[in-house]
Amino acid sequence: MKLLLDEHIWPGLASMVKLTLPAADVESIHTFSGGRFLNCDDAEILREARRAGRILVTFDVNTIPALLHEMAAAEELHSGVIFISAKSFAQNDHQGLALALAGLLRDETSADWTNRVMFLHKRTGEDLHRG
Description:
alpha/beta; 5-stranded parallel β-sheet
């Protein structure tokens, strides 16, 4: 399971997730493919994420859902989207986001994420040691 953090997520979050879960494969769009997808059209980013086998992690709950509906209507696949609600996480809640993403990676590592969409939920450090 590989994640791609969108441009509105602090790029250092990728490193924080890796500190919590060293095997994590998380990359920021700021560094992904040399940063060439930074400020690109959402559809182009989702297509490239699909080619790279990466799940998009985004705060964009306004435009991405409509795009996902368009893709579904066109029978175009995506490799998954994890939405982060501003009601659950502040953009600067780096520790909370890192814990939640690390927990999700640990719990869902072998799941098929094709066309899957979900909202990220808060976790505690204790959650990572269960199971």
